[in-house]
UniProtKB/TrEMBL annotation:
PANTHER family: 3-OXOACYL-[ACYL-CARRIER-PROTEIN] REDUCTASE, SHORT-CHAIN DEHYDROGENASES/REDUCTASES FAMILY MEMBER. Belongs to the short-chain dehydrogenases/reductases (SDR) family. It holds the Pfam family adh_short_C2. One of its GO terms (molecular function) is (S,S)-butanediol dehydrogenase activity. Its EC number is 1.1.1.-, 1.1.1.304, 1.1.1.76. InterPro entries: NAD(P)-bd_dom_sf (IPR036291), Sc_DH/Rdtase_CS (IPR020904), SDR_fam (IPR002347). The lineage of its organism: Bacteria, Pseudomonadati, Pseudomonadota, Alphaproteobacteria, Sphingomonadales. This is Meso-butanediol dehydrogenase/(S,S)-butanediol dehydrogenase/diacetyl reductase. Keywords: Oxidoreductase. It comes from Novosphingobium sediminicola. Transmembrane segments: none annotated. It is an enzyme of class 1 (oxidoreductase). SUPFAM superfamilies: NAD(P)-binding Rossmann-fold domains.
Length: 275
């Protein structure tokens, strides 16, 4: 393979759903020469991981088979540090190393009024979005430090890492937490040539995004079409985000052009999120 990521090995968590951000990120890196590990939870484990919201084993394999560069799959529950460490070691065993790690797995489908959020709801979101990212960062860093050739770690945060949203208390808290996690990790890992950054997209209509559109349109008593129209009207560039917008930002931060950027939380919001 040729391209600016030729010879690099990349892991993308939560990349096992068609049309999702994870698939778009994996495809962009693959198109530029990286060898990919497609990872997702594979099957429902509990009420917080319904089959309708996760990447199944067969879907993971289909995505990997469609990529233009070599790829493998590895089931991983990011809530389990041993499972995450096994994912990092799979990259080494199957492909000879680990250069790029993207913490993309997340829960964005537990949305309730503040008074209705249960302790289990809260823990489910924090465990995947923040603690899971921490496990991934730690596992990736251990391998990258051991290899001694640097690396790139990217967290897919959100506009919710910068601003609050109703019915998204745990989600917003988890994404704000990624800002602090990234800043601290970047300081520690800089001496090893490892950069750590967040990408913060605004709304993207993936499979999860479509569910969110319906959820919030119903709350406001309007159609999905009207909800999307109002959303576009408040974005300076006139449209919600696309999966490719986030994938492009990830590719930039993983490239040589992004080598001097670390500890940052990059907005990819069409101007909607200015800080």
């Amino acid at each position: 393979m040729s391209g600016r990521f030729a010879g690099k090995v990349a892991v993308v968590t939560g990349s096992g759903r068609r049309g999702g951000l994870g698939e778009a990120i994996a495809r962009r890196l693959s198109e530029e020469g990286a060898t990919l590990v497609i990872s997702d939870i594979g099957t429902s484990r509990d009420a917080a991981t319904p089959d309708s919201m996760i990447g199944g084993t067969d879907e993971m394999k289909a995505i990997a088979a469609d990529l233009p560069s070599p790829a493998s799959t590895c089931v991983c529950d990011v809530r389990d540090p041993d499972s995450v460490r096994a994912l990092a070691e799979h990259a080494v065993a199957a492909h000879g190393g680990l250069d790029i790690w993207v913490n993309n797995a997340g829960i964005g489908y537990i949305m309730k009024p503040l008074a209705e959020v249960s302790p289990d709801d809260w823990r489910a979101v924090i465990d995947v979005n923040l603690t899971g990212a921490w496990f991934g960062l730690q596992a990736a860093a251990e391998v990258m430090v051991r290899q001694g050739r640097g690396g790139r770690i990217i967290n897919i945060a959100s506009q919710a890492a910068k601003s609050g949203f109703p019915h998204a208390q745990a989600y917003t808290a988890s994404k704000h937490g990624l800002v602090g996690l990234t800043r601290s990790a970047a300081i520690e890992l800089g001496e090893h040539g490892i950069t750590v950054n967040n990408v913060c997209p605004n709304h993207v209509t993936t499979g999860l995004g479509a569910w969110q559109n319906e959820h919030f349109a119903q709350l406001q008593g309007i159609s999905v079409e009207e909800y999307l129209k109002r959303m576009a009207a408040r974005i300076p560039l006139g449209r919600p985000g696309l999966p490719g917008d986030t994938a492009g930002a990830v590719a930039f931060l993983c490239s040589d052009d992004g080598a001097y950027i670390t500890g940052e939380s990059m907005n990819v919001s069409g101007g909607e999120e200015p800080h």
